[in-house]
Every structure is written in C-alpha cells, then in structure tokens.
Amino acid sequence: MKKYYLHNGTESSGPFDIDELKSKKITQTTPVWFEGLEKWKTAGEIEALKTIFVAIPPPIDMSRETPPLQKVANNSSKKEILGLSKSTFWIAFGVVIVLIGITILNTIEDKRTRELELKNHKTEAENYQLELQQKEAEDQKIQAAMQEKVAAEKVIADKKQSDSSRLLEIEKTLANSQINLDAAEKMLTNAADFKLLRTATEKKEQLDLLKNTTDSIKNEIEQLKKESNQLKLELEKIQ
C-alpha cells in the first residue's frame, strides 16, 4: 500500500495511507508526495486521491433577504445617528464639544501656570545666586581689609622694634662717645699745659691732632643725638 506525505508550506508530515489521509481533510491544492514521484504534486493531480477530497459547500446567497433589512436600516437611520436619536445625538455632541473646549482651556491655563512658576523659580534662583555673589564679594573685601590691617600692624610692630633697638644702640654709642670725648678733651688740656722740650711745630701738630679727634667725637655725638630725637618722634607717632 502506498504511503503519502503531505506538506503545509513550512514542513512535511507522514507517511499516511488512504484511510489516514481522509481524516486530514486535504484539498486539491494540498502538496502530496509518495515514493516513485520525482517531485511534489498537488492532490488534484493524483488520480488515487480524487475520491477523498473534502467537499466545501458554496456560500449562502443572502441577497434576497438583504433588501428588507436595508430598508429597515434606512428607515431607522433617518431617526437615529450612531444608534442615538437625533436630539440625543446633538445634545451629546454639544456636551462633548463643551468638554473638549473646557479641556483645551484648562490645558492652556495649566501651561501658562507652569511657565509662570518656572519663570518665578528661575528669577528666585538668579536672585539667590546674585546674593551669594555679593556676600562672597563682601567677605573677600572684609578678609582683604583684615589682611591689610594685620600687615600694617606687623609693619608698625617691626618698625617699633627696629627703632627701639636702634635707640638702645645709640644710647650705648653715645655713652662710649662721651667717654671718648672726655678723654680726648683731657688729653688736649694736658697737651696744652704739658711742658716738655719740643718745638712749637710739634706742639701745634699734637694739639691739632687732639683737637681734630675731639671735634670728630663731638660731631659723631651730635649726629647720634639728632638720630635719637628723630627716632623718639617716630615712636611717639606710632604709639
């Protein structure tokens, strides 16, 4: 007995015998193959299978029943729109239009409100940023002023320390210079009164030398006193 294979367009199935094919409800266009065929054929091309085709009844012609239904539909369509009476339809249509209008207005109003809120928020953020910048600038000015004050105070303190140290140094130098001056003046007096065998020229040279030394010491003392007085005035101003 021959065994037949079927193909549904994507894959093949089988093998089936004649009785099994009857239950498959094949048609004349169903691809069929059995051993001995070179290629697939439709079931209508195989004589042995013509007796098992499923008979498909023709569609019922409903054209005779259509006119009365259409007439009824036409009659009802005169009184109804989309299944509603004309008055109900127009009322509903009006309500829908009003609702759409309200929705559009609400949408526009909401959009304006959001835009205004965003604008206000942006303005507030900009104002806050400006305040922060101003505060930062003020803080920088205060910090710079404090630094300048500290630097000025340091300069004054250094100046005061330097002047005080110089005054002490001048006082010591003045004390030493005064001692040297006293000694030089004494030597000058002694040299003038000292009576030894020496020529007038030698005496004059010795007296001139001692006098120059005395004058030099006096000049040094005078310069030191001027410097001391100037430093004292500066210290008084600093105080």
UniProtKB/TrEMBL annotation:
Listed transmembrane segments: 89-108
Keyword Transmembrane in annotation: yes
Superkingdom as given in the UniProt entry: Bacteria
Organism: Flavobacterium restrictum
Alphabetical list of InterPro entries matching this protein: GYF_2 (IPR025640)
UniProt protein name: DUF4339 domain-containing protein
Coiled coil regions in record: 111-237
Keywords, sorted A to Z: Coiled coil, Membrane, Transmembrane, Transmembrane helix
Domain GYF: 4-49
Lineage: Bacteria, Pseudomonadati, Bacteroidota, Flavobacteriia, Flavobacteriales
Pfam families hit by this protein: GYF_2 (PF14237)
